[in-house]
Amino acid sequence: MSIGTFTIRALDPLKDAELLHRWVTDPKAAFWMMQDAKLQDVEREYMRIAAHEHHHAYLGLHDGEPAFLMESYDPRYVELVGLYEPEPGDVGMHFLVAPTDRPIHGFTKAVITAVMDELFADPRTRRVVVEPDVGNKAVHALNEAVGFVPVREIDKPEKRALLSFCTRDQFLAARGVAV
């Protein structure tokens, strides 16, 4: 059974702010650390990202409807500066699935797979880097399901994080594609 079609477009910080505000303040988005954010805080944060040369935000669509948020960043300049030794072709990633009253079995795994497909569509991407909160066991399991390998815990200013990497070959192997 197909879950549907995923597409990804650049995020419009002003046009998409109300939607994002609902998502990031939802109790299910606690690890996004914006629970108390006001609409203006969300606008300001995504305007900052839009203006940043090394950080990008995207809106993911499921069958044409907004369904997830994706961010990519260059860890040499954003998020992980001084916390690990970046390699050429490293790309950092965050994703957030929109809260829903009608969950679809396998949807979140399909989203992270679409995100990884998007990142690896760029031939310069050699490895995807993530740094989720150590307490976010659900995302650790999802990350491992698409090929991420945990490396070590690191201390970021806002959280204790689990640094994990996924190469193109690890991602393809996790999908059952011969490499």
From TrEMBL:
<protein>
    <submittedName>
        <fullName>GNAT family N-acetyltransferase</fullName>
    </submittedName>
</protein>
<feature type="domain" description="Acyltransferase MbtK/IucB-like conserved">
    <location>
        <begin position="9"/>
        <end position="56"/>
    </location>
</feature>
<dbReference type="Pfam" id="PF13523">
    <property type="entry name" value="Acetyltransf_8"/>
</dbReference>
<dbReference type="InterPro" id="IPR019432">
    <property type="entry name" value="Acyltransferase_MbtK/IucB-like"/>
</dbReference>
